[in-house]
Amino acid sequence: MLLKTFGWSFAITALGLVAAGFYGGWEALGIVAILCVLEISLSFDNAVVNAGILKKMNAFWQKIFLTIGVLIAVFGMRLVFPVVIVAISAKIGPIDAVDLALNDKDKYQQLVTDAHPSIAAFGGMFLLMIFLDFIFEDRDIQWLRWIERPLAKLGKVDMLSVCIALIVLLITSFTFATHAHQHGGAHVDKAQTVLISGIAGLITYMVVGGLSGYFEDKLEEEEEREHEEEEEAARTGKKRSPVVLAGQAAFFMFLYLEVLDASFSFDGVIGAFAITNDIVLMALGLGVGAMYVRSLTVYLVRQGTLDDYVYLEHGAHYAIGALAVILMVTIQYQINEVITGLVGVVLIAWSFWSSVRRNRALAEAEGKATASDDKTEVSSGV
């Protein structure tokens, strides 16, 4: 079952790592491996959400999501989107961006370096909003309670995450303005670029969130309608087969899943810019990671169970927050790609281990409670 579901992902991983090794040696292979882990971990909760929605669709729409959806997710968001970001930021055509990346790496590297402030400001703001909206939300399960409890209380203030993000952006752009003044105004355009790109990142986040919310509302309406039909069937005594959505409802679900996947892709793609500017390595790492996310979605649907590692979502969002800070810092200072990648991996690994320890503690507590009940029954029987 495991090999059947993840077989293609394993094969593509091997091909991707071999291709990375031939392309740039051991360092490139390591970067692709880090990007793959980063993409899987950041999109893990996406796979869980996908599985919960996908199981309601009929076989036709499940196939559409797992075929056309894969093409959109892997080739559209993970391969084309990074090229588009570079092309827009460097003010060149997408084909020229690919051509330079493959044939004139020095010039491409210079263009990306020049465009880095706008990419970092855009991406930093987008990732920061994801992190802030997560950390300010009051949730039942908390990982680092000493941080999450007080922040959840602060989160009751409306638009707090937007205000903090804008303050961070203003401070960042003001820093560049000060730096420009000290150097005779040579970097005035850089400060303006940071401010405009950061606002664009904030707007993009809000648009994507708005679209996701729209499709969520559509799905809730459809689920309410299905529930009413079930109650009607129960009242009339007519037998009703299990709900498997098709037609317009399934189409809305498909659109919702694609928008949701795109929003999760943003953090992976933009976070990847904090690790490497090479679109070839980015495409390999994120593409392989996206295949695992799809395989994991299929696995969860077929098994009918969701994962028990409850802190993994927390670790992924802390990694997003760390990447946001790193991106904003790299506007002014250079940070080694391996260090950047390892920060996210360490946070995710820590959250995974915390989840394992939590599951063990719960199992031990349950075992002790069962043993205590058995002793009580034996003593009362005597």
TrEMBL record:
The chain crosses the membrane at residues 30-53, 65-90, 115-136, 157-181, 193-215, 243-264, 270-294, 315-333, 339-356. Pfam families: DUF475. Keywords: Membrane, Transmembrane, Transmembrane helix. The keyword Transmembrane applies. The keyword rRNA-binding does not apply. PANTHER family: MEMBRANE BOUND PREDICTED REDOX MODULATOR, SLL1022 PROTEIN. NCBIfam families: PRK14013.1-3, PRK14013.2-5. This is Integral membrane protein. It comes from Streptomyces asoensis.
